[in-house]
């Protein structure tokens, strides 16, 4: 939470009671400035104005109460840090008692006042600061330690204290009505007779009329000079008067100072004279050091004003009241204040006892007129000189210790209501006494006669129905002040795009907008309006000599923004037109303008409205619902309403980012800036001057940093992201209730559905645009919104991450990941690529080996999730590293288990009395368990047969061991397998298995991709073993010379294949035909779709036969094996008969060809036709073959590890990258016997660069045994060039060709005499390379 903290938790022992809160609201209602619609407002706004009768909805009251509550929490934290609770079993980490108990016998140092204040301010500024308070904390027994620096010293009389004063303004005390909504939870119950209140007010005015006088006090309060380390940041910031006031202005501190002031006044003059030298020494030391002495304002006697003018006297309290005061004077301070707050002569806020509900200034004894008493308007007066009881004219002070009822009474006419923060107030002694604007005069003008009439645009005492003049539309004359007591604060009831433009223009023209760090600081209209909207709203012209209304407009606009944006219903209604939420561009524009005039108010108000997102839906509140007891007295929002509110808040966050506008000469520049800034921040950087990641101006980078580190904006983002998973948890509870109740309501849409409906830019033609923007603006907005949403999600993740891969799923971090996951699933509709979701910051700080292994045993819950459950935030090379770390860990474990077993067998065999025969039998039976490697002995003339025979019925623990291949050793080939022999084996085995003549796979003539043959004659176990070969290659980190369509990898990962883009690479001709059907227009020149005579059939070819099957609809769904819509009731695709015995019950597919024509394909059923055709092509026709292949593929791979991979990434793991970049290969090549500057090396790269793709693959295969580049690029390819002698005419090296050690990926290259010889010999070696001499 920020500095403006809300009230403490009700369960805390230090929390206020409900009565205290109502007293504070009642007092603030008396003193807060009321917002009224100024007279120069356009006529259209008058119909939108409404009165506010709830004090909690008044922005000035709300702001003051927040500051008050923050002050109280800071004081409680200071007590907790310095004193503790005193309970032995305390477990609150920040409590001094807990720290002392945890330290044991070790001495523990208590925090000093500055340190405690620093920590307390930080703790009170966090989210939900009440949770950190110790539940055992009690009221302090002593005043705050910060008071020890204040000293009461005699004051030297320099002038006559008695000066005349004009009669005070009585109407200020009678212009504030009692809130009509002060019953229930909105305020103190309104009781009493109206006539009595009227008589009380009249009698008060009669009492206030005589002129009184008072004298100045004979003392002042100064702060003792203390030694301070000027190099300390904490001492120079948190040791200032502004922060000390957080402790000085608490009830306990003010009561202590009032008692000290009373005691000082009661001291004999002789004792006081002994202390007169102390302030003189203090003053002399300050003058000698040429430093200003910190002083407080003088304590004013209760009988006079600051100018020596007399104050009105109120009626004395009753005898019963005096007895009550005397009784409570012996109670502890906190108890006395909680039960019956005391009056004080200097208090501006009064909280009277029931049943009198009205907090009128007239009932406060010696009330000061703000127009004449307060010499420092808008500033917080120091409590050091304003807290003690003084003389009450003819009546002396009570014997009990007088106390200010609560600190808000001292601040009601100071910083709380005059837009002066507590941190920015200068010392009062540096101010000059000037005429100033009182609370009742808001236009900034003042007449020469204090008692004369004031010229106000809207008088504070004016009635609600006369807030604006009904005069001429051309010239407006301000109305005189009215004495009507029923005046209420006003606000607009709704906002619209036109109203937002108007109020923002007003504040920018008047120069009253909030100072902030967002860029640009102000926004002017840059839209083209809307054809259906009326004239532009403009202010009326005032008559000559009329006052301006800057302050009134500021109050009214702030009140309007707070009233509407903090109410979820009003916020949604304001930005809805024709039952539909504003389009994304218009909503962003409105938020952009409002965040440039009052960003703190906008973000805080939306934060308050977002609190309603945590209220459960009505389904959970129904009486029959099992969860109804958990959520009582909660106002609920439907998912549709919650989604609209969340969309409004998210657009406000988007608007906080720096505005990047399109350049007409280069429209792509702005888009590239958004992408580059997103990449920079994904690395956790604020600047990227090197340009390695992206190069953008420093000013833009710093502007991004200011926006994404804004405390209020981050607080709003955290609440929104937390609400995402909360709403989904509510949906899960509703689903459980529906399972128990068969008559339950239909499930609601997801909470993010309204947002994605706004951001569906692919169907933007159906969106109703409220405002019209240029084409370039709309094109840029399509990129801006999703990119900045991802940036805000990353900003919250980076700020909340503690370095652990396990994070809270129900917190802001988990909500940000949920938003990114939802956007990732809709990335095509949002026009986003995979690269936009990556956050390199996390991968750079996580362990690449232990972290993914620990993730395998992590159980996903709602409270705890793992970063690897969201693999889209990592780049592909990082995911491949994690995937291979998991495989290597399993391989190492299997190897170590077999090694350990072999050691135990050797020990048993050496120590036992077994015979030699028995030992051999034991060793043979345990050979499979004790073998360290999976060894395959393959003949080159029967590669696939030997592979199937040796892999058949192997145990899983054997398959998980490191692979060793012996290829062709029976025919005399020598090979030492360090990877090259394995590559050669898989190349030969899969080339034979995927050969169309083998009968298991077919190859598309255009794409050259392999796919299963529908109804293949081959047995299913062969497909399973082919899948096992692929699994072994991936498990051992090898790439294969195969090409499968992407649909296969989607099905292996359990993802649906239901879009045309999923089959475009494997069946380009079919995809093209289906795309033409999808885009067919019956009203076009080509005629109707029925005229093409397309039937609802699926056709294919197998073994020279043309097969046609009528397609049947299937229920959607996804099973565990990637068969994404397998309907058990659906007829299986018939298989070709493999033997004569199978022919009777396995008829050939062509025997089921339909005799009658199927139903035609038309516009109304073309979408179903396309979906069913894709399903029959990729699933139904090849279901047995694919299921067998998938079983073999999953044999060696951990199922959970496959979730790290995308279909494209899995395809790269299996097939590698076919594009070979020779310049990259040269960059990572290594040399032995040569260097880069050698003539032979220069000639070699010059020749290779001119090779075509086929020769490049042959070169790579010749050296590394694979013609594919692994995932990650050439930096993962080992390519060594070693000198292999020198060829010359005299030596014996003539005619020698280049050779290679594929095991070591080394090219043995002789030094030839010229370039042409090198080109000839290298070409001969690449064209005739087959088999191994020694590899």
Automatic annotation (TrEMBL):
Active site location: 1303 (glycyl thioester intermediate)
Domain of life: Eukaryota
Recorded GO MF terms: ligase activity; ubiquitin protein ligase activity
Protein name: HECT-type E3 ubiquitin transferase
PROSITE patterns: HECT
Compositionally biased region (Low complexity): 461-472
PANTHER family per UniProt: HECT-TYPE E3 UBIQUITIN TRANSFERASE, UBIQUITIN-PROTEIN LIGASE E3C
EC number(s) recorded for this UniProt protein: 2.3.2.26
Enzyme's top EC category: transferase
Catalytic activity: S-ubiquitinyl-[E2 ubiquitin-conjugating enzyme]-L-cysteine + [acceptor protein]-L-lysine = [E2 ubiquitin-conjugating enzyme]-L-cysteine + N(6)-ubiquitinyl-[acceptor protein]-L-lysine
Ranges of residues in domain HECT: 955-1335
């Amino acid at each position: 939470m920020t500095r403006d903290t809300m009230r403490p938790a009700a369960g805390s022992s230090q929390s206020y009671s409900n009565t205290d809160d109502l007293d504070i609201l009642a007092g603030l209602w008396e003193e807060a400035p009321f917002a009224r619609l100024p007279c120069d407002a356009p006529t259209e706004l008058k119909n939108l104005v409404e009165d506010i009768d709830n004090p909690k909805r008044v922005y000035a009251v709300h702001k003051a109460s927040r500051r008050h509550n923050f002050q109280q929490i800071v004081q409680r934290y200071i007590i907790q840090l310095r004193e503790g609770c005193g309970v032995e079993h305390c477990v609150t980490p920040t409590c001094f008692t807990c720290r002392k108990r945890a330290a044991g016998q070790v001495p523990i140092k208590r925090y000093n006042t500055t340190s405690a204040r620093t920590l307390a301010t930080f703790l009170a500024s966090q989210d939900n600061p009440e949770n950190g308070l110790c539940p055992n904390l009690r009221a302090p027994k002593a005043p705050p330690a910060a008071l020890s620096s204040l000293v009461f010293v005699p004051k030297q009389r320099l002038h006559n204290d008695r000066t005349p004063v004009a009669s005070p303004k009585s109407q200020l005390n009678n212009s504030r009505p009692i809130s009509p909504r002060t019953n229930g939870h909105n305020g103190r119950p309104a009781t009493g007779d109206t006539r009595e209140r009227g008589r009380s007010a009249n009698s008060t005015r009669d009492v206030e009329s005589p002129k009184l006088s008072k004298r100045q006090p004979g003392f002042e309060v100064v702060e003792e000079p203390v030694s301070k380390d000027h190099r300390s940041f904490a001492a120079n910031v948190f040791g200032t008067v502004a922060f000390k006031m957080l402790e000085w202005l608490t009830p306990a501190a003010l009561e202590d100072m009032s008692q000290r002031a009373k005691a000082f006044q009661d001291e004999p003059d002789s004792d006081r004279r002994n202390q007169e030298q102390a302030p003189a020494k203090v003053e002399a030391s300050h003058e000698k050091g040429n430093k200003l002495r910190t002083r407080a304002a003088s304590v004013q006697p209760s009988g006079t004003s600051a100018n020596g003018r007399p104050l009105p006297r109120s009626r004395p309290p009753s005898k019963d009241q005096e007895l009550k005061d005397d009784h409570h004077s012996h109670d502890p301070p906190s108890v006395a204040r909680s039960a019956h707050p005391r009056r004080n002569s200097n208090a501006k806020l009064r909280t009277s006892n029931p049943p009198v509900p009205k907090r009128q200034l007239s009932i406060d004894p010696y009330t000061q007129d703000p127009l004449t008493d307060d010499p420092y308007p808008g500033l917080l007066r120091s409590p050091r000189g304003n807290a003690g009881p003084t003389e009450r004219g003819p009546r002396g002070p009570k014997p009990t210790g007088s106390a200010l009822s609560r600190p808000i009474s001292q601040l009601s006419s100071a910083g709380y209501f005059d837009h002066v923060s507590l941190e920015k107030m200068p010392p009062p002694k540096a101010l000059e006494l000037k005429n100033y604007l009182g609370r009742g005069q808001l236009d900034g003008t003042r007449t020469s006669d204090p008692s004369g009439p004031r010229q106000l645009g809207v008088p504070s005492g004016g009635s609600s129905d006369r807030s604006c003049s009904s005069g001429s539309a051309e010239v407006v004359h301000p109305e005189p002040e009215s004495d009507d007591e029923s005046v209420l604060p006003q606000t607009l009831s709704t906002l619209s795009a036109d109203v937002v433009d108007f109020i923002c223009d007003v504040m920018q023209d008047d120069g009253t907008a909030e100072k902030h760090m967002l860029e640009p600081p102000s926004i002017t209209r840059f839209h083209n309006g809307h054809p259906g909207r009326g004239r532009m709203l403009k202010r009326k012209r005032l008559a000559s000599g009329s006052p301006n209304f800057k302050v009134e407009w500021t109050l009214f606009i702030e009140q309007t923004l707070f009233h509407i944006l903090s109410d979820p219903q009003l916020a949604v209604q304001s930005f809805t037109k024709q039952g539909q939420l504003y389009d994304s561009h218009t909503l962003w524009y409105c938020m952009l303008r409002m965040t440039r005039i009052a960003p703190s108010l906008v973000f805080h108000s939306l934060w308050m409205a977002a609190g309603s997102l945590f209220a459960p839906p009505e389904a959970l509140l129904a009486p029959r619902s099992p969860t109804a007891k958990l959520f009582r007295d909660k106002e609920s929002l439907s998912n549709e309403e919650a989604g609209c509110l969340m969309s409004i808040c998210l657009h406000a966050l988007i608007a906080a980012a720096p505005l990047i506008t399109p350049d007409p000469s280069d429209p792509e520049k702005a888009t590239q800036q958004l992408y580059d800034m997103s990449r920079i921040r994904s690395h956790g950087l604020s600047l990227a001057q090197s340009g390695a990641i992206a190069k953008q101006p420093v000013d833009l980078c710093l502007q991004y940093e200011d926006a994404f580190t804004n405390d209020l904006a981050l607080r709003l983002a955290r609440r929104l992201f937390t609400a995402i998973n909360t709403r989904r948890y509510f949906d899960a509870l509703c689903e459980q209730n529906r399972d128990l109740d068969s008559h339950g309501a239909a499930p609601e849409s997801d909470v993010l559905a309204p947002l994605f409906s706004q951001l569906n830019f692919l169907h933007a033609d159906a969106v109703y645009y409220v405002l019209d923007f240029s084409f370039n603006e709309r094109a840029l907005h399509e990129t801006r919104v999703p990119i900045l949403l991802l940036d805000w999600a990353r900003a919250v993740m980076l700020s909340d991450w503690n370095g652990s891969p396990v994070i809270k799923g129900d917190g802001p971090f988990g909500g940000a990941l949920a938003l990114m996951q939802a956007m990732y699933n809709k990335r095509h509709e949002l026009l986003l690529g995979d690269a936009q979701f990556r956050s390199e910051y996390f991968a750079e700080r996580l362990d690449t080996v232990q972290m993914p292994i620990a993730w395998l045993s992590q159980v996903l819950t709602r409270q705890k999730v793992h970063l690897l459950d969201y693999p889209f935030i990592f780049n592909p090379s990082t995911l491949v590293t994690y995937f291979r770390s998991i495989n290597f860990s399993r391989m190492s474990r299997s190897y170590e288990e077999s090694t350990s077993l072999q050691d135990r067998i050797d020990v048993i065999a050496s120590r036992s009395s077994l015979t030699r025969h028995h030992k051999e039998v034991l060793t043979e039976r345990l050979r499979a368990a004790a073998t360290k490697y999976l060894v395959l002995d393959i003949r080159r003339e029967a590669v696939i047969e030997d592979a199937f025979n040796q892999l058949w019925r192997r145990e899983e623990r054997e398959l998980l061991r490191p692979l060793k291949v012996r290829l062709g050793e029976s025919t005399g080939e020598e090979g030492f397998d360090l990877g090259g022999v394995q590559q050669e084996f898989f190349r030969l085995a899969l080339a034979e298995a995927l050969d169309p003549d083998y009968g298991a796979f077919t190859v598309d003539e255009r794409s050259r991709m392999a796919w299963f043959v529908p109804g293949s004659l081959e047995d299913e176990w062969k497909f399973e073993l082919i899948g096992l070969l692929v699994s072994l290659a991936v498990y051992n980190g090898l790439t294969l010379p195969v090409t499968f369509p992407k649909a296969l990898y989607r099905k292996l990962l359990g993802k649906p294949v239901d879009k045309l883009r999923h089959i475009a690479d494997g069946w380009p001709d079919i995809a093209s035909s289906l795309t033409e059907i999808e885009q067919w227009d019956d009203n076009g020149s080509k005629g109707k779709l029925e005229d093409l005579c397309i039937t609802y059939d699926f056709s294919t070819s197998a073994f020279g036969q043309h097969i046609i099957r009528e397609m049947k609809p299937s229920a959607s769904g996804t099973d565990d094996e990637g068969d994404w819509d397998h309907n058990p009731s659906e007829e299986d695709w018939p298989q070709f008969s493999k033997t004569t015995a199978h022919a009777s019950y396995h008829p050939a597919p062509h025997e089921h060809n339909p005799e009658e024509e199927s139903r035609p394909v038309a516009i109304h059923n073309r979408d179903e036709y396309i979906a069913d055709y894709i399903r029959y092509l990729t699933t139904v026709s090849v279901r047995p073959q694919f299921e067998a292949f998938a079983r073999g593929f999953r044999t060696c791979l951990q199922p959970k590890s496959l979730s790290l991979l995308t279909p494209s990434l899995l395809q790269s793991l299996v097939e590698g990258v076919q594009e070979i970049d020779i310049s990259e290969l040269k960059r990572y090549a290594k040399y032995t016997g040569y260097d880069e500057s050698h003539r032979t090396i220069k000639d070699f790269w010059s020749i290779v660069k001119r090779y075509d793709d086929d020769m490049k693959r042959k070169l790579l295969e010749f050296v590394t045994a694979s013609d594919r580049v692994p995932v990650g690029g050439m930096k993962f390819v080992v390519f060594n060039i070693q000198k292999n002698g020198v060829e010359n005419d005299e030596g014996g090296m003539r005619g020698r060709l280049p050779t290679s050690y594929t095991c070591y990926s080394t090219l043995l290259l002789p030094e030839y005499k010229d370039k042409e010889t090198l080109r000839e010999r290298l070409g001969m070696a690449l064209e005739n390379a087959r088999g191994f001499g020694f590899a």
